[in-house]
Each structure stands twice: as structure tokens, then as C-alpha cells.
Design brief:
The chain is built from 8 helices and 7 strands. It is of the alpha+beta class and 250 residues long. It has one domain: NADH Oxidase, CATH 3.40.109. Bound molecules: flavin mononucleotide.
Length: 250
């Protein structure tokens, strides 16, 4: 299921287009905001969902890997502060972004390079600047998100996770899912294990990227699978493995 394009993004796209054309802003500025223009351009997924291209991910940062590893912790309370689109972009890129120039390989390793994983982001109304509340699916090839469902489902996700209410506090709740058919064809039942291992890689990438951005993340494995699937309105074949609330520390 998919939904209309996010309204906030459209309005911003117009403002950005005007600003860029009249001020003849340099390319770097245009790149930073091009996700908004692309979002209004109406590019669609194979399911017909409108895609919003995310800001270009950065290849460098100010926090070392060592520092991010040392400081990573599971955080269970978040401030109400919104994330920037660039931060959502960076988190999704670290999770499943394509990192091979001209190729298809991703930020996390994948057995047989079969990539059976998907990442969804449940955003609250004050979740990410320029994005309406809803359920977004990350599209690695386009480095974009498609709005797959409307509404703020974070409280329902928290209830599905044995009422861990802190999940609903996070401006962004990422959910990592596996589609086992994409990997069991080659590896049989062992493919299920491989997908779970891959989910761990993705989760750690999200943890470290969050830390490097000055954000904090939590990880949740205690939830009722069927309820999470229902709340996110995702296909039954996408098995939820990990929930990761992300936001600013209080
Ligand atoms: C697979 C997995 C599932 C987890 N599930 C939950 C959970 O449902 N709720 C929760 O509060 N923490 C959960 N955690 C977080 C652990 O409690 C946490 O990682 C542990 O206490 C170590 O703390 P640290 O991550 O801050 O180093 C989970 C961690 C992992 C790896």
C-alpha cells in the first residue's frame, strides 16, 4: 500500500526551487536540497508509490569509528527534537545504502549478495523536518523513501513491542525486515540464519551512524511479529527482525 506524496515536502520543494533559481545557489547547496525537488517530481516505485529522494549522504564525519563504538549505548528516552532530513538520509544510507561506485553492494554485508533485507521508517508528525508523519520504505537504488502508509503508528508499534512505551517517544522508529525467499532459494533454511546475521550488521551500522551524528538509538527484539507487520501494513513476506527507535538524547 502506498500513500500520496508528503505535503510538507511539496511545499518546501517549491520554495527551494524558487530560491535556487533566483539566487543561483551553488551546486553544493542545490545537492543538499535536491531531495525536496525530487520528492515533488513524482518519481514512483514499482508499486506506484511516490518517492522522495534523500539528501546526498556524506562520506566523512567528525566522529571516529573508535569513538562511535566506545560511546554506543542502547538509549531508551529521547527529546522531542526533530531530525533533519540529512540525518535520516545518513541513517538509512548506513543501514542499506549502496556504497559501491557504479555497483550494487551495500553498507552492510549480505550472504551471496542477495540482499533480503528492507528498512522501514515510522515517522511522527515532528519526526523529520519536511516529512509528513507516516511509514516510509527505504529504496537503496534511488537513495529515496516511498511513503507506504499514512499516520503516526509509533504508539501502536510500542504496544506491539510488549508495551515498551519509550519506542513511541523517538521521532524516528526504524524497522529492519527480512524477506527469506530472497535468500533461502540459494541457501535453504540456512538462509534464515544468514538474514538474521545481516539484520545484526545493519543494526550496528545504524547504532554507530546515530552516535556519529550526535543521535542515540535503541534496539528492540521483544515484539509480536504479526502485530508489527499489521501496524506497518507491510507484506506478510517481510518478517520484522529488529526495531530501532532513533532520536536526540534528553
Ligand atoms: C537482539 C536484541 C534484542 C534486544 N531487545 C530489547 C528490547 O526488546 N527492549 C530493550 O529495552 N532492549 C533490548 N535490547 C537491548 C539490550 O538490553 C542492550 O543491548 C543491553 O542491555 C546492553 O546494553 P547496551 O546496548 O547499552 O550496551 C536488545 C538487544 C539485542 C541485541
Amino acid at each position: 500500500m502506498c500513500e500520496d506524496k508528503p505535503r510538507g515536502v511539496t511545499r518546501r520543494a517549491l520554495v527551494c526551487t524558487l530560491a535556487c533559481s533566483t539566487l543561483a545557489a551553488p551546486l553544493v547547496v542545490w545537492k543538499q536540497f535536491s531531495f525536496m525537488v525530487a520528492g515533488s517530481g513524482g518519481e514512483t516505485t514499482s508499486k506506484g508509490c511516490v518517492m522522495t529522494t534523500l539528501p546526498e549522504p556524506l562520506g566523512t564525519g567528525t566522529c571516529s569509528v573508535e569513538q562511535a563504538v566506545r560511546e554506543r549505548r542502547t538509549v531508551r528516552s529521547f527529546s522531542a527534537k526533530m531530525l533533519q532530513a540529512s540525518q535520516l538520509s545518513q541513517l538509512l544510507w548506513a543501514a542499506q545504502g549502496i556504497t559501491e561506485e557504479g555497483g550494487f553492494k551495500r553498507a552492510a554485508p549480505s550472504a551471496g549478495a542477495l540482499f533480503p533485507m528492507d528498512v522501514y521508517a515510522a515517522l511522527g508528525s515532528d519526526g523529520v523536518k519536511g516529512f509528513a508523519e507516516g511509514i516510509y520504505h527505504y529504496e537503496p537504488v534511488q537513495h529515496a523513501v516511498s511513503l507506504d502508509g499514512k499516520g503516526d503508528v509509533r504508539s501502536r508499534l510500542a504496544r506491539a513491542a510488549l508495551s515498551q512505551s519509550w519506542i513511541a517517544q523517538a521521532p524516528v522508529v526504524l524497522v529492519i525486515t527480512a524477506e527469506y525467499d530472497r535468500i533461502t532459494g540459494k541457501y535453504g533454511q540456512r538462509g534464515v540464519r544468514y538474514a538474521m546475521i545481516e539484520a545484526g550488521h545493519i543494526a550496528q551500522n545504524i547504532f554507530l551512524q546515530a552516535r556519529a551524528l550526535g543521535l542515540a538509538a535503541g534496539i528492540v527484539g521483544a515484539f509480536v511479529d504479526e502485530e508489527v507487520t499489521r501496524v506497518l501494513m507491510i507484506p506478510d513476506s517481510h518478517a520484522p527482525l529488529v526495531i530501532m527507535p532513533v532520536g536526540f538524547m534528553i
